[in-house]
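mind reviewing these tokens:
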Amino acid sequence: MTMRYQNFRLICEIQMAICILMLFGGWSSYTIAKDFRNIDPGFLGEVKTGFGYTDNVFRRDSNKESDFFFIAEPDLWWKGKFGKHFLAAQYQGEYTNYFSLDEQDSNDHTVNLDLGFNFTKKFYANLGGGFVRSHDNPQAPGITTANFRSPTRWHERKVHGTFIYGRRNLGAAEIALTLYGKQRRYSNNNQEILDRDGFGAELEYDQPLTQKIDFLSVFKYNRSDFQREQPNEGNQDNQGYSFWAGASWDHTEKTTSRLLLGYVRQISDSSKKDNFSGIGVEANIFWRPKQNHLVTFEALRIPEESNDRGSGFFISNRVGVNWKYDYEDYIHFNSGVDFRYDDFSTQDRTEKYALANFGISYSWTQSVEIGCEYNFIYRDSSIRDRDYKLNTVGLFVKVSPNF
């Protein structure tokens, strides 16, 4: 049971690392499938639930409204092994209920299913799909005009296939091809204008140079097709491609890093919207001075798909540091600071963010953890009356039963 518990904690760290590397990136959600190979068969799960308070529910500069809320977040994983192959499934949910602002209540779900095929020692394939039902928070990154009294809801269907040839962990070169497609539909607040389909591909080549250094090269392509054109604005359809090269290396037993530099080209189908050409960056450093101590640094310059009217994409620039520390395996600290600068090249618009978080928790038992969290967001927008500050505090209980 202890091994499964440690595997679940490893899964959470993998998820965190991927999110830090490519938050909301068009390709990030399709790379985690490869990590299922490192998870033991069985059932794992946890439920995090608690109460919180936020002082600016609608994220406004004035006329702020505050409220208490209840939140529950189940996260369930299952993996079954069939000879050399496996089937894996995941369910994640987020249920939020406000005490006074009932119109802000939400229940979000994510379901993923993956089939892994180990055909030979050098050839691996993963096929999968998923369904997401979620919502856009008011004034979240990539959103400027949404000040609705109820969340803007959407659902998304997605499929992907990943094919890997080689064996990097045995010192040989490895090439990986990922193909994906998705379909997003909005269901309220007259946001059907944002309905869209998307597809893309990523080709990565990984060549070990020494025992500690790998050379990496990546080609990426993506396309978004919006289903309805906006009168007097042109459509938001766009496509992009990028070439990346860099390295990953183990500096010491305690420090690993990854750096990719690339040329990014994002093209709008509408003559009324500008294109973008420039440098892309994906970099991170993991420093673990002790087994229970992890410091992560990340820096990104990547294109993102916009959830706002009038803009099909924007360029996000980010830098951040996150710190995790476990004291004697029962007291856990987590804190982070992030800065981001979003440039909407299709509009005369920029947005700057400062984000900070801090949390402390206590493991009552191996399966029960209690704690508190604080999150801060500040946005400075070039659009008038779109600045805001947001403070959120919460108390939670997390249960991770052993099955």
